[in-house]
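Saturday, quiet lab. Running sequence design on the structure tokens for the scaffold JK sent over.
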């Protein structure tokens, strides 16, 4: 064979081998499409045209952590309607929820739990009845990574004119401005309200002067997702309203040993009292009633009054008509163990303000019973002429002992 013929034979063999390789490299078979893959594209395109147009969106995204217990597990659909939504905990416990009337959205009927993993399974249909499916799993924020604020007064209550909004956080707040911006306090009286941080865990809010009687105050907590400290997020979404009652302010004069109870500035009753003894003077200042007890125990050991054996200098287990004025243990309360002659004449207590009363708290005609019955949480008791220092503003709900300028200087915004 000449060289020319040999070369032509190799070229033909190579072309034939190439044809075999091409044929073996495509699994389309005898499609008649020339081996260019057009038929597979057509199949894929046809399948896509047959799929549902419904577009499901789940919040939060699949795999999310630190999800909100209020806003998580929301489902919406575009170009279709929801037909089935299932939310369960990781162990399969179902969570109640509701599809909206227009079948365009869904949300849980209950607040989610913290530190819990949830699974969502969603089905929707488009206008031609073609189904679309979506699944997601997420974990809600843990107690370690979230904070809540315990607030007073309670929703729906009627309180005295001195009642501040007081919020105590269960975690130290370092981003005070962000948290304060998530809290609003407004009054129907139109009074300006300012908030003051006493420390990293407590913020109180009040107007410059006492609340206007008969007004309604609204507290809104929009703290869900607010980062109060690094990696620590709020979870509360809540609105609280409370009403301000009549304007009652009582004035205790330790020098005259009398208390004048006023409403709208007019004295409605004068009551003889016995304040703290010269050795145990009562704090001076504006104090707000924060708790009321028909009867309670008062043990001197709990507030530092002990004898040589370490026992309380007093332990009275049935103090009648007691109303707290400070966190440290100052009360205005009934006194049945003292002689009637001390009231209006001698200051004998360990720092409380005593009113004549009876054991058992069952006589409605005693001064102690009358004052208890006619007092609200949030009423103001102004204590004067004791010779002691003014009570600290954060010792109870007693921020009124700060000037308005000092109060606003403690705001973070």
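Result came back. Writing it out in full:
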């Amino acid at each position: 064979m000449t060289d020319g013929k040999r070369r032509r034979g190799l070229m033909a063999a190579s072309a034939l081998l190439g044809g075999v390789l091409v044929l073996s490299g495509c699994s389309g078979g005898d499609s008649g499409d020339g081996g260019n893959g057009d038929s597979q594209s057509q199949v894929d395109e046809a399948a896509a045209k047959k799929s549902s147009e419904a577009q499901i969106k789940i919040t939060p995204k699949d795999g999310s952590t630190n999800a909100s217990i209020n806003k998580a597990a929301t489902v919406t659909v575009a170009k279709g309607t929801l037909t089935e939504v299932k939310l369960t905990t990781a162990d399969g416990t179902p969570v109640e929820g509701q599809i909206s009337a227009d079948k365009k959205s869904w949300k849980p009927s209950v607040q989610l739990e913290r530190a819990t993993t949830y699974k969502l399974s969603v089905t929707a249909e488009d206008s031609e009845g073609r189904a679309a499916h979506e699944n997601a799993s997420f974990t809600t924020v843990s107690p370690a990574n979230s904070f809540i604020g315990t607030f007073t007064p309670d929703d729906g209550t009627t309180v005295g004119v001195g009642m501040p909004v007081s919020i105590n956080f269960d975690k130290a707040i370092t981003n005070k401005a962000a948290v304060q911006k998530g809290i609003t306090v407004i009054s129907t009286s139109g009074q300006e309200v300012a908030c003051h941080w006493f420390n990293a865990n407590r913020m109180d809010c009040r107007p410059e002067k006492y609340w206007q009687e008969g007004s309604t105050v609204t507290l809104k907590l929009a703290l869900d997702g607010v980062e109060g400290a690094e990696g620590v997020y709020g979870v509360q979404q809540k609105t609280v309203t409370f009403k301000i009652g009549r304007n009652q302010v009582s004035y205790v004069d330790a020098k005259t040993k009398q208390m004048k109870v006023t409403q709208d500035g007019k004295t409605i009753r004068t009551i003889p009292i016995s304040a703290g003894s010269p050795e145990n003077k009562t704090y001076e200042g504006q104090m707000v009633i924060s708790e009321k007890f028909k009867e309670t125990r008062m043990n001197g050991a709990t507030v530092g009054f002990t004898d040589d054996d370490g026992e309380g200098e007093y332990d009275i287990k049935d103090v009648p008509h007691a109303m707290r004025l400070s966190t440290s243990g100052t009360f205005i309360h009934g006194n049945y163990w003292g002689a009637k002659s001390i009231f209006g004449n001698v200051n004998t207590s360990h720092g409380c303000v005593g009113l004549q009363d009876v054991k058992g708290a069952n006589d409605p005609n005693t001064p102690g019973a009358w004052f208890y019955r006619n007092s609200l949480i949030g009423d103001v008791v102004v204590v004067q002429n004791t010779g002691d220092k003014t009570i600290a503003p954060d010792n109870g709900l007693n921020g009124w002992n700060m000037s308005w300028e000092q109060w606003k200087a403690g705001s973070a915004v």
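Notes for JK: The radius of gyration is 37 Å. The CA atoms of residues 81 and 103 lie 5 Å apart. Ask whether to fix the surface positions before the next round.
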